[in-house]
């Protein structure tokens, strides 16, 4: 398992072997009185997904981790594996059955305990690593698109970081829904992947101005813009909405450093100052102006919605159907051994990765 004793750099990612019968578990188990020991399963994990939120947890800036757990903490929201043991109320799964699931932290571990309703049979269309990297990004994309944005077919949608984990899912789900997509990527090596995912147009922001290009492709503005960048693009994302358009915010990546000044993974004093400056310059939106312009802004963080079992069940029913049909796929997956978690975090922070990163439990 990986444990983080306090905020900091890569040296805070401490590895240790679990003892016999030991496991990590999701924070919602102790925080929800409706979950009992008889409702729980212990999963021997094959792999665990790596998300940018995990980096923020290590830095000590992820709000739900501070609120629900504190220090020490084992990060990780998603996993694949097989059931090792289960409570007497668990009837949908058998010992040894291959599954994948979500956890409110705790998934960077060779054995994790979660409620039964948070695991699902491993689909035939996904291998162990793909399954481990699927759920967090797919659920985030589904919630943002179908629960919040609710676009009509033929809508034009702008998706920042279209070749990333969430972005790649947003592109596919938007196309399944019959929308047109303009995807923004951060480098030439990501353009082909964005096109293969289904983007109607791809903007390479390393070579062209995002907003000039988006205005060229969609002169009248977008019905929806998905933005996890924050201060760098938030205002212009709003400005490029069409009347009736919705800006959906689910992260603030550009507020935080892409890599450490020291190379050790911790945030330097100068980077903290820059974070403060970026916070100061984060746009504030006037409700009166928004009303007259007929534009909306929505924001969310699914780690605060783990008690919404109805959302999990509805979203997974649709997502698993599309996976089975072959219309929804996991983009490129890059595996790292669990002991190389620092390398995975460093690569993810660089902004150069494509698709999803996962930690494998094989030695």
TrEMBL record:
Pfam families in alphabetical order: ADH_N, ADH_zinc_N
Protein name stated in the entry: Synaptic vesicle membrane protein VAT-1-like
Phylogenetic classification of the source organism: Eukaryota, Metazoa, Cnidaria, Anthozoa, Hexacorallia
Residue intervals of the Enoyl reductase (ER) domain: 26-359
Single GO term (MF): oxidoreductase activity
Domain of life per record: Eukaryota
Organism this protein belongs to: Stylophora pistillata (Smooth cauliflower coral)
Any one annotated GO CC term: mitochondrion
SUPFAM superfamilies linked: GroES-like, NAD(P)-binding Rossmann-fold domains
